[in-house]
Amino acid sequence: MKLLALVSVAAALGNYAVSANPVPKSNNGNNGQGNNGQGNNGHGNNGHSGSTTPVNELYQYSVIAALVDGVASHGTLVKNVMAHGDLGLGTFDSLIGEMVVVDGVVYHAFANKTVTVVDPETIETPFAAVTTFESQIETSAAITNFTGFTASLPTWFGNTSITNHFAAYRLEGTFNLRIRAPGGQCFALESLANVTARQTEWEYTNIEGTMVGFRTPKYAAEVNAAGDHLHFINANRTIAGHVLEVASVGNVDIKLAKITNLHVEVPSEGEFNLAAFV
């Protein structure tokens, strides 16, 4: 197993309190779902079974700058990432498909429109971001488009600026959306731009499901994609991908959390050492 170089990045923005018309979530210890005996699939024990990371700390393996440069042939086992969270996104070796993490289950969306549940003991990821998600704000609202989603986030956070913060979110409802899944690299270190130029895209209307993702501030653009990064999976767990455009069908349920701690691990050898980061 590869050695990992550990980089700890503390936002050091202190404690915060969020108050707004959207309802701050009361902490009842079980996220309102109780322990229904379903173990660590996220529906019992607050969905945090097995996580070693504090609630709402963002854990990330590798950085987006490396992925852009095509550093994707190998990575770390998915189980190593999942020790740090139950909600998130990423990709897989050689940029084959998209990763969606919901309720502690990792899904692999392929360019052939199939979705599988990942075996975390055997599958690697070159880039992934997860958090042990616990909502601080819960609200319901309509989304007009991706731009409208981005513009509405401060309102949902109670008119509090989150421009310079990371944030995590989970949305449940019915959507019209366009998603993608790349087919993978044709050779080692092929750039992300080249791979996504061949990506497969699909449009869906009135599709019920879950969107998860993160907001990354501009100052961290080399760490993760600046702005809002969303992945979707439908209710039947048969359709999934990276969200390119989205609008809701009526109101959707929105859960939000501001993130002030970031933990990044990067590979200490291999392709990562060859990346130009340009």
From TrEMBL:
SUPFAM superfamilies: AF0104/ALDC/Ptd012-like. Pfam families: AAL_decarboxy. One of its GO terms (molecular function) is acetolactate decarboxylase activity. Its EC number is 4.1.1.5. InterPro entries: Acetolactate_a_deCO2ase. It comes from Apiotrichum porosum. One of its GO terms (biological process) is acetoin biosynthetic process. Belongs to the alpha-acetolactate decarboxylase family. It catalyses: (2S)-2-acetolactate + H(+) = (R)-acetoin + CO2. Residues 24-52 are annotated as: Disordered. Gene3D superfamilies: Hypothetical protein, similar to alpha- acetolactate decarboxylase, domain 2 (3.30.1330.80). It is an enzyme of class 4 (lyase). This is Alpha-acetolactate decarboxylase. Residues 1-20 form the signal peptide. Keywords: Acetoin biosynthesis, Decarboxylase, Lyase, Signal. The keyword Hydrolase does not apply.
